[in-house]
Amino acid sequence: MNTQVDSGASANKPRVFLAVPVPDDLLPQIEAVCEPVKPQSGRIPTKEEMAEVLPTVEGVMGTVRSQFTRELLDSCPNLRVISNFGVGFDNIDVPAASERGVLVCNTPRVLDGAVADLTIAMLLCSARDVLPGDQYVRSGEWKKSGPPPLAMEVRGKTLG
User: Fold this and answer.
1) Other C-beta atoms within 10 Å of 107: how many?
2) Which of 97, 116, 141, 160 is the most exposed place for a label (fewest CB within 10 A)?
3) What are the strands, taking DSSP E only, across 14-132?
4) What is the pLDDT of residue 90?
5) What own/partner pairs with CB < 8 Å and gap ≥ 24 does 76-82 have?
6) What confidence score (pLDDT) does residue 80 get?
7) At 5, which helix (H) or strand (E)?
8) Residue 68 gets which letter from DSSP?
9) Is the pTM of this model over 0.85?
10) pLDDT in the model for residue 8
11) Is the pLDDT of residue 53 over 70?
12) Angle at alpha carbon of residue 5, lines to 67 and 24, rounded to 5°
């Protein structure tokens, strides 16, 4: 896999593979303490590409789409940190990482507000039959038979 090491990185800094596109405002913070190694493609690397690069780095920043199996960790003697750029860590064999002294990190609570917003949106969509109503209007059926049946009102209801 073709990787690039950012220029100006110090040989004393730990090498960290950025297996996820990093926002421009975050990159200088990473460069201040690490030597970033990025895939040339700018996309999330495949399992094979990860296996090629990970043995040469001390850390990796990935996503839940980056799979860290026991077998992959076996080939990474220098790896010290796996950091998910996301909430979960189902993609990491945590017991295998712990056995090897590899710290596993994520970004908890980063999506709490978005999940709450979408939950309310889904509840309203379900109660008010938004998707069937949309399909009804788009089909033109409303021109023939009038408005769709009334949906449930949310006002005055209790959730929980």
Assistant:
1) 12
2) 160
3) 15-18, 35-39, 59-62, 81-84, 103-105
4) 92
5) 76/102, 79/54, 80/14, 81/16, 81/105
6) 97
7) strand 3-5
8) B
9) no
10) 44
11) yes
12) 75
